[in-house]
C-alpha cells in the first residue's frame, strides 16, 4: 500500500499541463499590446539602473576595458535563452512566461520552482530599483531626505534591516502599482515614454564618450600607473590594478565580469508574460524578445566603451561612474542629463518588473499552485487586480524596510535557474509526439500482443536491451513516439548533471584543468565527451511533425550551449548567495506541499474545464478551471 502511495505522490510532482489551451477556456485579459509595446516593455525592463552603475563596478575591479567583452559574453548567454523564450512564446501564447513553459514540458514541481524563483527575482529587483530611484532623487536634493530619515528613525530599526525606512521608495512602488491597475495599455504608454527618454540620454552618453574619449586608456602600461601614483593622492599599485593593457585582469576577470554583467540583461523575459495581452503573440513575442536584447546589448556596449575611453578604468568611481567621468573630461553639466536618464531608466524598469511579477503570480494562482483568489481579474480594466495589488504591496513593504544591495547574486541565481529550465523545456518538448496522439499510443502499447517466447528466459531482456541501445542513435521511427520522448527526457536529465559537474570543475579548478593537471584535465575531458555523446543521442531522435511558428536554430546544440553557459555563470556566485537561495526555496516547498499540490487543477479536474475566467463578482471554487 505504501509503495502505491509513494508512486501516486511522485506522479503528482511530474504532472504536466496541456500544451494547448483547455477546451472552453477564454482569457479575460485584454489583447491590446503591439510589437512596439513589447519592445518598449522589454528594453525598459532590462535597461534599468545597471546601464548607469554596472559598467563602472565591473570595469574598475573585474575586467577593465575588457568589460565590452563581458557584456558580449553576457549578451550571447541571454540570446541563447532568449531564442528558447521566443520559441515558447510563439508556441504557447499564454500569460505565464517560464512558469508555464516548464509546466507543459518537465512537470508541476519544476514549474512551481521556476515561478517561485521568478517571484524572488522580481521582488529583489523591484525593491532594489525603488531604493535606487529614491537614492538618485535624494542626491539631486542634496541628500536632505535621507539625512532627515536617518536622524529621526534610524535608531528604531533592527540591525538586520536597512539603516532607515525609505518612505519615498514605498510611495513610488505604490504609485506604479496604481498605474498597473489602470490597464495594460496605460502602463505600456508610460513605459514607452520613459524608455524613449532613457534611450535618448544613452545616445548622448555614447556619442560624448567617443568625442571626448582617449584610445590610450585601452592601452595602459606600467608607466601610466606610476605616473598616476606619483600624484598627491597616488596609492595605486600594479598588482591591485591588474597587468595593464586591454585585459588587465585576464580571462578569469572576463568570466567574473560576465557573470555580473548578466544581471544587466535580466528582464527581457517580461515579454513572455504578455502572451494573453499581445495582439499577435506568435509574431510579436519572438520579434520583441530578440529586438529588445539587441538594443540592450548596443546600449551596454556603447556606454561601457565610452566610460573606459573617457576615464582610465582604475580611476572610475563605482558609486557614480558616469557623472564623475563627465567631470573628468570637463563636461560637468552633463551629469544632470545622466541624472534624468537614470530616473527614466529606473521608472521604466520598475514598471516592467512589477508587470511581470503580477502576471506570474496570477498564472500560478490560476493553476491552483498559489492561493486562488490571486487569480481574480477586474471586469473593467481586464487586469489581474488581486495579484497586482498583492505583489505590489509586498514589494513596497520590502522596499521600505530592507536593503537589497547584497542580494543581487541571489536574484541572478534565481533568474539563471528559471532560464535554464526554459531551455531544457524547449529541448524536451521539440522531441515529444503530439499530445492528442499520446493517449492512442499508450492504448496501443497496452493492447499490443506479446511476442512469442523464442528461447531461454534470458534472451528476452538481452534482446530488449540491445534493441534499446540501437534505437538511441539509430531510431526507426521518423516521427516521435512515447518511447523516443522518454529517451529525450532521460538524456536531458543526464546532460544537466554532466554539464553541472563540468561547470563545477571548471569553476573550482580552472588553472589546474588548463595547465594539464592529469586528474582535473582527465575528469573535464571525460565529462565533455559524455556530454557530447548524450547530445548526439538527443539529436538522433525524431522531432515533432508540426513545426512551431518560431524555431530555435541548431537544436540541440544551442540549447545545450545555453544550459552550460547559464550553469557556469551560476557557479560564479558566492556560497552565501546559494545559502540564501536555498532558504527561499525551502519556504516555497512548504507552500507547495502544504497548499499547491492539493489544490492544483491538474489533480482535481481530469476533464477539460468549462471556463478560465475569474472576476471580482463571483467566487472561485477549488475545482474551477484555469
From TrEMBL:
It comes from the Eukaryota. It is found in: Cell membrane. Residues 550-600 form the Cationic amino acid transporter C-terminal domain. GO terms for molecular function: L-arginine transmembrane transporter activity. It is a multi-pass membrane protein. Residues 438-459, 604-626 are annotated as: Disordered. GO terms for cellular component: plasma membrane. NCBIfam families: 2A0303 (TIGR00906). Belongs to the amino acid-polyamine-organocation (APC) superfamily. Cationic amino acid transporter (CAT) (TC 2.A.3.3) family. This is Cationic amino acid transporter 3-like. It comes from Camelus ferus (Wild bactrian camel).
